[in-house]
């Protein structure tokens, strides 16, 4: 039997119940379905033995004793309750649930029985059933707000956000200053896009518990979302007037002007921002970089970013950092020539500025001008006197793309010389992936496998590494169970990636599940119709399924695609 994790919810919610036993039973109705929880003398010794076994941790023995008691008293709720607790301790949720339901059935007024059942339901993700029990508990114990909290969280877990919000409102009727209920209510109002109600809740929070910068910013954002930009600007300006160096308020102010298309006001406020001496220059650059990132997702920001960069450059014409920043902005907009000019201006002012060299190389990489990459990396090393991880990764990738696989791995093998804790993880991942692909091209599969494992050591969910490692294992016919796990993870991450689907289908073929393999790889083929490798795999699958007519058809198609690939490569070489 598997050993699942202990019921995390019960450890928090029901710890006292597991220790208390049945001593807290509430008075019961004497009906045929709710007998008293007292035990007949003949069963008392068995029950005591079961309770002692529970305390001693021998739950199997306890269960045996409690079942003997039930044989004599099949409607005793206390015994069902004790059985349920024993199964909770053994982490057998289905049995724990069954006996807790019996306990509540035979004694529905006992709050301990019902709380145990509610906790079991919650832990089994039966959130609607849990909510029903917590609602009953809230009615039984109207003065205990804890039941309402449990009820609200059951509704949250069940994604019944309206009912959760109503429940937090009930809590706030008991305790208007409860910060947890206030915060949860605010979150739900935002999720449900009830911005007016959220503003009211936030203002109440600030009035009751005091205000701070974070709450003020949130209130401004809410006014913006509710179509009241004037109120939002009023809040942001007030914050700036009180603390001119508070950068988050400036960012919110700039965003509001951009969203409203207020160019003149934006420019006026930008001038004020740049003039504030308390905000250090590097901090101002970071603000511009933030808006550059925004412009990548929203082109409407591009014009404003250009203004930010131009105004900054005008104020500091001799600062190399400004030219690097403007070059980055030009590159984001794919104005590569202007970007190159700016990086070269920066290097003219500060020849040993490593970041400027890296950004210049990055611009050539974006244009796939690998000959410029090699030349610039060499110049950077000579000028600065050393290399960098980023320069090595750029050079290694450019060598790989140029077909110089052996040179590529020699450069990228140097990444181990850099301190891992000081290196950006994405650069190390890129280095190892490129190295793995270069090893594969050199037919050194074991080294390629090692490089992909290096990637997963840094980024265990990297879909490309998962897929490629799975495919290498499939081709070698080894570690197929592990390969299948990796292939499924890759497809889960990118379900519409035809290459990943092909790998998964090929592994099903390796396991002899030919129909499943055909289904998956035919789906991959519908997305990537010009990939000869997919046709090759389908040929083997159709052959295994005895579909000889399709075997011939797909062999011909694969051969045709390979000839086209070869022709394209030869054409590319001749043009160089």
**Would you tell me the structural class of the helices and strands?**
mainly alpha
Low-confidence spans: 1-36, 571-576
Main sheet, how many strands, which sense, barrel? Answer: none
Helix content class: over 70%
Beta-strand portion reads under 5%
| Apparent shape | flat
DSSP helical segment count: 32
Nearest-integer average pLDDT: 85
Note down, in words, how this protein is organized.
- This protein is mostly helical and 576 residues long.
- It has a domain at 519-570.
- Helix content is 76%, strand content 0%.
- It is built from 32 helices and no strands.
- α13 (213-225) packs antiparallel against α14.
- The longest helix has 28 residues, at 548-575.
- It is flat and about 90 Å long.
- The model is unreliable at 1-36 and 571-576 (pLDDT under 50).
The gist of it:
This protein is mainly α.
Name some characteristics of this structure.
single chain; 576 residues; mainly alpha; 32 helices; flat; disordered N terminus; disordered C terminus
Helix and strand topology:
Elements: H1 8-13, H2 15-20, H3 41-55, H4 59-72, H5 77-89, H6 93-106, H7 111-123, H8 127-140, H9 145-157, H10 161-174, H11 179-191, H12 195-209, H13 213-225, H14 229-242, H15 247-260, H16 263-275, H17 281-297, H18 302-315, H19 320-332, H20 336-349, H21 354-366, H22 370-384, H23 389-401, H24 405-412, H25 425-441, H26 445-458, H27 463-476, H28 480-493, H29 498-510, H30 514-527, H31 532-545, H32 548-575
Helix pairs in contact: 3-4, 4-5, 5-6, 6-7, 7-8, 8-9, 9-10, 10-11, 11-12, 12-13, 13-14, 13-15, 14-15, 15-16, 16-18, 17-18, 17-19, 18-19, 19-20, 19-21, 20-21, 21-22, 21-23, 22-23, 23-24, 23-25, 24-25, 25-26, 26-27, 27-28, 27-29, 28-29, 29-30, 30-31, 31-32
């Amino acid at each position: 039997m598997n050993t699942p994790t202990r019921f995390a919810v019960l450890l928090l919610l029901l710890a006292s119940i597991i220790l208390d036993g049945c001593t807290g039973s509430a008075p019961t109705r004497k009906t045929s379905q709710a007998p008293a929880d007292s035990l007949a003398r003949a069963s008392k010794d068995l029950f005591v033995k079961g309770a002692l076994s529970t305390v001693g941790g021998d739950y199997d023995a306890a269960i045996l004793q409690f079942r003997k008691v039930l044989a004599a008293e099949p409607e005793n709720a206390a015994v069902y309750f004790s059985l349920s607790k024993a199964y909770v301790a053994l982490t057998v949720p289905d049995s724990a649930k069954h006996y807790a339901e019996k306990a509540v059935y035979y004694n529905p007024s006992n709050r301990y029985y019902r709380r145990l059942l509610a906790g079991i339901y919650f832990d089994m993700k039966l959130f609607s059933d849990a909510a029903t029990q917590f609602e009953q508990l809230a009615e039984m114990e109207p003065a205990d707000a804890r039941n309402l909290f449990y009820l609200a969280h059951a509704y949250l877990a069940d994604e019944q956000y309206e009912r959760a919000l109503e429940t937090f409102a009930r809590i706030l009727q008991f305790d208007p200053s409860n910060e947890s209920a206030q915060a949860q209510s605010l979150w739900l109002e935002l999720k449900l896009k009830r911005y007016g109600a959220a503003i009211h809740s936030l203002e109440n929070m600030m009035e009751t518990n005091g205000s701070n910068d974070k709450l003020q910013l949130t209130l401004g954002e809410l006014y913006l979302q509710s179509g009241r930009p004037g109120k939002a600007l009023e809040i942001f300006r007030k914050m700036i007037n009180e603390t001119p160096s508070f950068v988050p308020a400036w960012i919110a102010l700039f965003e509001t002007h951009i969203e409203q298309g207020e160019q003149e006001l934006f420019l006026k406020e930008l001038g004020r921002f740049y003039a504030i001496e308390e905000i250090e220059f590097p901090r101002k650059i970071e603000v511009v970089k933030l808006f550059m990132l925004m412009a990548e997702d929203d082109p409407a920001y591009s014009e404003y970013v250009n203004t930010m960069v131009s105004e900054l450059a005008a104020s500091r014409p001799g600062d190399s950092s400004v030219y690097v920043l403007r070059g980055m902005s030009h590159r984001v907009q794919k104005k590569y020539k202007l970007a190159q000019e700016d990086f070269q201006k920066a290097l003219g002012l500060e020849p040993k500025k490593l970041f400027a060299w890296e950004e210049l190389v990055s611009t050539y990489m974006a244009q796939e001008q690998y000959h410029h990459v090699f030349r610039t990396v060499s110049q950077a090393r000579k000028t600065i006197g050393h290399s960098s991880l980023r320069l090595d990764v750029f050079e290694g990738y450019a060598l790989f793309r140029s077909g110089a696989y052996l040179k590529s791995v020699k450069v990228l093998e140097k990444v181990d010389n850099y301190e891992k804790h000081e290196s950006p993880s994405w650069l190390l991942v890129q280095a190892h992936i490129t190295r793995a692909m270069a090893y594969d091209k050199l037919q050194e599969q074991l080294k390629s496998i090692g490089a992909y494992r290096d990637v997963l050591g840094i980024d265990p969910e990297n879909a490309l590494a998962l897929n490629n490692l799975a495919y290498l294992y499939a081709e070698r016919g080894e570690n197929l169970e592990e390969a299948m796990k990796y292939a499924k993870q890759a497809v889960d991450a990118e379900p519409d990636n035809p290459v990943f689907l092909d790998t998964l289908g090929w592994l099903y073929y390796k396991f002899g599940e030919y129909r499943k393999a055909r289904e998956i790889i035919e789906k991959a083929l519908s997305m990537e119709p010009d990939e000869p490798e997919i046709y090759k795999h389908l040929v083997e699958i159709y052959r295994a399924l005895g579909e000889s007519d399709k075997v011939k058809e797909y062999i011909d198609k694969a051969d045709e695609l390979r000839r086209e690939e070869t022709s394209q490569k030869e054409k590319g070489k001749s043009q160089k």
